[in-house]
């Protein structure tokens, strides 16, 4: 089992920056990749970004590419999402996820989930 705990959400003005973090514990050596998803009220949970455990290969949703950066610290079992040039459309609960198989973009491709952290961008 793997446990994921997000932190770092909050309120930020449009154009600002924010970093959310995810602490992983448990059988992290069994993971192939970790990622971030987000869910706005009344909408589906959407892929944001992912990174592989080995090689640190990354992929991003088109909506955040160039504005968000995913990174990890393997020694600390930490995952980060640095968000810049935020706009109100980025407002959502951000979820950390982990996959045993790869850095897919589908919710069903991830095996473990955190509880989420709220990010609110004011106009």
Task: Walk me through the structure.
By secondary structure, this protein is mainly β. The protein is built from no helices and 11 strands. It has strands spanning 2-7, 10-13, 18-26, 33-39, 45-52, 58-60, 68-73, 78-83, 92-99, 112-113, 117-122. Strands 2, 4, 5, 6, 9, 10 and 11 form a 7-stranded mixed beta sheet that branches. Strand 4 and strand 5 (45-52) form a beta hairpin. It is globular, with a radius of gyration of 13 Å. The termini are far apart.
Secondary-structure blueprint of this entry?
Blueprint: E1 2-7, E2 10-13, E3 18-26, E4 33-39, E5 45-52, E6 58-60, E7 68-73, E8 78-83, E9 92-99, E10 112-113, E11 117-122
Parallel strand pairs: 2-11
Antiparallel strand pairs: 1-3, 3-8, 4-5, 4-9, 5-6, 7-8, 9-10, 9-11
């Amino acid at each position: 089992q793997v446990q994921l705990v997000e932190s770092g959400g909050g309120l930020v003005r449009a154009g600002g920056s924010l970093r959310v973090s995810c602490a992983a514990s448990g059988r992290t050596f069994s993971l192939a990749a970790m990622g971030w998803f987000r869910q706005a009220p009344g909408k589906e949970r959407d892929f944001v970004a992912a990174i592989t455990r080995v090689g640190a290969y990354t992929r991003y949703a088109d909506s955040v590419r160039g504005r968000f950066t995913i990174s990890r610290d393997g020694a600390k079992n930490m995952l980060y999402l640095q968000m810049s040039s935020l706009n109100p459309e980025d407002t959502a609960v951000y979820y950390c996820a982990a996959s045993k198989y790869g850095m897919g973009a589908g919710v069903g491709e991830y095996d473990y989930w955190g509880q989420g952290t709220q990010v609110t961008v004011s106009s």
